């Protein structure tokens, strides 16, 4: 049994990408990313998903190392985004008899992306494929995070091949499963992946989780990051929390500042919240912070405080960008407070207040608004706002 065979007949053949700097040309990859693919080996062989095309040769080497010259009978496509599907056409050249398995939306995308029309096999919710010693069944989980997304279930080994669901950023440093590497290194990267990639689709993720819970899952094999075995239960719970946007007690202070006045409010609020006994406080200067890290923290904590100077009679652009990202993710239920600054005509606080109304979020305290410089009155307002935020958090904790 090779190291890649982490369960009888289930083998990892994915690859690490340590050179791409931005996933989807958007999100940073400080620790790389893995594109996971798996073989299910019975009398017949199925490959579950492929890898990004520039790593296709490495995928083929990994496959050959595991099964030599045996053919692949089926390629199951759980997700069509090209980081998983773009080696498909090259693989078909190598394995011309390989049938490509997907639901009707998948097959439509295969035709559109790769011009493949032969040897396709459409499956639905009640279909199975018998590999001889291993069965593949299919669960449709649309909009996690594309419309064609599905999961593949192997009941003999209680393995769920879940697509992007439960995936993380971060290349696999040696180990494949969460018992072979330090899972804690990947937890924050899972939150960041969720916030950046999947976060808009909390409702479909909840529906997917309802389906997953009907299965006696022992192992989760996502398309990125570690295979979850020992921690599979915790990962399901974490996904449930994230997709409900259930924030942990904590405060994110996200601000823009051109000359340091708005920043001074952010720093004072953070110190005053700490003095009130709040321990989970994260402060982000939005001109410099990694956007996916900010989103990760906004998903994680239950209170968001945003500060912005007025700029061209609008919000400061990095603040505007963050609010747009939050709004497109339909994030419910955050406690919100704000502060802003202006020199001759204020707009930022008004815009922040409009944002909170659109989101239907609970606002805490009065916005702090600076006209020109910081003052003793503003300093006192920071203490008041911090006190109100802390009181709200304590009341919430008492209710739970
Ligand atoms: Fe990892 Fe949605 O592709």
Number of strands: 23
Number of helices: 12
CATH superfamily of the largest domain: Ribonuclease Z/Hydroxyacylglutathione hydrolase-like
So what's the overall shape?
elongated
How far is it from the N-terminal to the C-terminal residue, by CA?
Answer: 49 Å
Q: Mind describing the biggest β-sheet?
A: 7 strands, mixed
- Category by helix and strand content: alpha/beta
**What small molecules are bound in this structure?**
MU-OXO-diiron
Description:
There is one protein chain. The chain has helices at residues 56-67, 82-85, 88-94, 104-114, 184-198, 202-212, 232-243, 261-275, 291-300, 317-328, 348-359, 376-399, and strands at 5-7, 10-12, 15-17, 22-23, 27-28, 33-35, 38-41, 45-48, 74-76, 99-102, 120-122, 128-130, 135-140, 150-154, 159-163, 219-222, 248-255, 281-285, 301-311, 314-315, 335-342, 362-363, 368-371. With 400 residues, it is α/β, with parallel strands linked by helices. The protein has two domains: 5-243, Ribonuclease Z/Hydroxyacylglutathione hydrolase-like (Metallo-beta-lactamase, Chain A, 4-Layer Sandwich); 248-399, 3-Layer(aba) Sandwich (Rossmann fold). It has a seven-stranded mixed β-sheet with strand order 1-2-7-8-9-10-11. Strands 17, 18, 19, 20, 21, 22 and 23 form a seven-stranded mixed β-sheet that branches. α4 links the parallel β10 and β11. The longest helix is centred in the last third of the chain and has 24 residues, at 376-399. It is elongated and about 75 Å long. MU-OXO-diiron is lined by residues 79, 81, 83-84, 145, 164, 223-224.
